[in-house]
Amino acid sequence: MHKVTNNSTYKKLVAELKRLHHLNSSLSLLGWDEQVNLPKGSAERRAQQSAVLADIVHREFTQPQIGEWLDNLESLTNGLSDQELAVIREVRRNYDRSVKLPAEFVAHKTALDSQAYHAWADARAKINFSLFAPLLKQQVECSIEEARYLGYDRKNTYDFHIDKHDPALNTVIINDLFDKLKKDLIPLVRNILDSSIKADTSIFKGFPVNLQESFLREVTTAIGFDYNRGRIDRALHPFCGGDGSDTRMTTRYDTNNPLDSLYSSIHETGHGLYEQGLPLEHLGTALAEAVGMAVHESQSRLWENQVGRSKAFWNYWEAKYRSLFPQQLAGISDNQFYLAINEVALNPIRVNSDEVTYNLHIILRFELEKRLIAGELEVEDLPSEWNRLSMDIIGLKPKNDSEGVLQDIHWSSGNFGYFPSYCLGNMLAAQFWYAALKELPDLEKDFRMGDFSKLLHWLRKKVHRYGKQYDTLTLTKMVTGEDLSPKCLITYLKERYLPLYLEPQT
Predict the structure, then answer these.
(1) Whole-number pLDDT of residue 505
(2) Is 418 exposed, middle or buried (0-12, 13-18, 19+ CB in 10 A)?
(3) Distance between CA atoms of 124 and 135, rounded to whole angstroms?
(4) pLDDT-based confidence at residue 351 (cuts at 50, 70, 90)
């Protein structure tokens, strides 16, 4: 329980943080609306609106009064709880960074994010990287400029961006984790791909969108998403935004690929459950913020994969799914159905990839980002280098740039250092999963009855309630008793997929 301090300075600080959070959440809603509802001809107008609001937020947060409050609070030797000290620590971290960024840089970067998003969407639709390249080059330049303002040299710029998404992590730590993962993952991928057992996803054809939407809403409600405080809409790229009081998710639909919308929705619901599980009364402070993107991704990947692709999950949901799509699934056995859900095959698209090969996509992007930010790779050379590394790491060359270098939205907003969080999140999801099973050995029995509440309660107790009090590495050790490692992920993948692909199917 968070102790309420009598310190008047702390109360003033928190009140101001909450006021600024209202401004920031409004800016976030503009971004959500831009991807869901905005008319194409209004893109420039939205860029201007976002830039103005970002400038106001930056100016308000960097006012000297906040710095004075922090100085006052940091001079105290007692009287503040651990939770309050965590709030002060995170405000100081963000304040010191923000005051070093000129307001005109912040406004320019916000406008660039909007412009680059539309350029990326256009380039992706037209399969023409050159339409996006000039804006991407500006994003790279902005990433270097931002780091320089904050005291980082070019050599450490990528570490700065990793730290923005996952405090306490850096290139050295991630390199070590990824190298250990590759040692076991690449042979596992080859072993499964060489199997004579193949999943047949061609069975998923002609699934009406309205029925897909009905089913996924029922599923996401059952696993705990509160639609009284959130919603799901359609966008070019699935995402989750907002906060615990107003959580905005998106997905996309394909009549011949219904699993895309379903698992994208379960994935984003995992993000949404985390946001809705953070202490609502502390919204605006670090006590209601996610630890970092690796932990955030662990929540989405755990629900999407460990839960959503499990046999126990489909023991409950398969009958309902078949009742909605009787003609489409006629003649398809339970084993064929489940194997198709857990297909392992090379795919050029990250978000369409199975969880066995998925991490290879992240390793590819990590290698490219390191070199791009370090100045060892030019933007113009990205498409050819992407294709080369795709063959080298994944074993597949995309047929065009929309399947390759243009497939992800992240670089359009300058989100460098974000991609490693996906793979780190997979490692964390597996560690959390085994920790949960140890304490709740009947979890899968609950899933077979359609009850997902115990797992959600466990995550709320072990992860969500702490907000940002602890960094990723500390929280991992607290929850699982072990350091962050790929060990549990490899164990989980072997337990889930080797019986499917290396044993005769009945």
Answers:
(1) 53
(2) buried
(3) 14
(4) confident
Beta strands in 155-267 (DSSP E): 230-234, 240-243, 246-251
> Order of strands, edge to edge, in the sheet holding 240-243?
230-234, 246-251, 240-243
Q: At what angle do helices 420-439 and 293-301 cross, to 10 degrees?
A: 60
pLDDT confidence band for 4 (50 / 70 / 90): low
Do 464 and 277 meet the contact criterion of CB atoms below 8 Å apart?
Answer: yes
Query: For residues 413 and 120, what is the distance between their CA atoms, to the nearest angstrom?
Result: 10
**pTM for the complete prediction?**
0.91
For residue 379, what are its two tokens?
Answer: 């933007």
- The residue behind tokens 């209601």 is 288
Q: What is the number of residues in the chain?
A: 506
CB 275 within 8 A of CB 229: no
Give 277's contacts (C-beta < 8 A, 6+ positions apart).
244, 456, 459, 460, 463, 464, 465
> Residue holding tokens 């860029």?
47
Catalytic residues: 268
Single-letter code of the amino acid located at 128 = N
